[in-house]
Fold this sequence. Notes:
Layout: E1 2-8, H1 15-30, E2 33-39, E3 55-58, H2 63-71, E4 75-77, H3 80-87, H4 89-98, E5 106-108, H5 123-131, E6 135-139, E7 148-151, H6 154-163, E8 169-173, E9 181-188, E10 191-200, E11 213-217, H7 222-235, E12 239-247, E13 250-257, H8 263-269, H9 273-284
Amino acid sequence: MQTSWLVVNAFLKGESFARMESLLSKAAAEQDIELLTKTSTDFIREDTFFAAPRAAVFLDKDIKLAQRMENQGIRLFNSAAAITLCDDKTLSTLAFEKANIPQPKTIICPMTFPNIGYTHLDFLDEIAQQLGFPMVVKEGKGSFGQQVYLARNMEELSAIMRTIKPSEILFQQFIEESAGSDLRLYVVNHRVVAAIKRVNQSDDFRANIEHGGVAFPHTPSAEETRLALLASAACGTDFAGVDLLLSKDGPLVCEVNSNAHFTGLMKATGVNPAQHIMAMVKEVL
Ligand SMILES: Nc1ncnc2c1ncn2[C@@H]1O[C@H](COP(=O)(O)OP(=O)(O)O)[C@@H](O)[C@H]1O
Ligand SMILES: [Mg+2]
């Protein structure tokens, strides 16, 4: 029997994490792998590294820890570089642009300093000129739709800018025809293993389950599959949940989640991504 690690954050807990951990351990056992859970604080002790496996599933977003583990020669699923790109939407949008992947028109907010903030907001006029209203504003680091906002006019846009912390922010064209719905394609090892369509029947434009989105199984088109694989590859993920928006001009990439929770998708489709992930880890071990 081979051994691998499952690395989780020491402070962020929850039912969904526990369920994923159990699904991954079970899928590992099916591959004759013993999957040992390590929490991020375990690595403060240097002797933790003495019995390091060749590969580990990294469910944390602690990219410095990930980099440290890679420095020790451990192959991580996902890599530090992939998690870095996915965890900041302003970085992933640049990766999509570089790879010519269709996405909503996006403008990255000019950077400021924490002790200075945005001393004037004149530049919002030019952004409004280019994107029009309503427009979508996203904080670089955010999940479950919690840091994604809709500004219907300049007053709302200025109010959002005054409320959110000056950090990585992007402004995006609102894909009105897809409001309240999106596609989530789950990619493992360069293959789409399952897909759902999420529909929010309330008047919220976000399709996230956490905001009322309901998941339905979805059979992706060839173009949707192609796009999800390109986006996942652009971010360098081994496994990821890729969100697509269906625009009138075809599918667009919304984001790539290196740390996507898969229990909802599993319930809707019957596909267990943990089995695909552990089969990929087995290849490397
Ligand atoms: N440009 C957009 N136009 C229309 N809807 C959008 C746009 N961007 C995001 N959304 C909606 O908001 C949801 C959350 O945005 P997303 O970028 O995926 O952030 P999160 O990481 O919080 O899930 C998406 O699933 C989608 O339903
Ligand atoms: Mg999303």
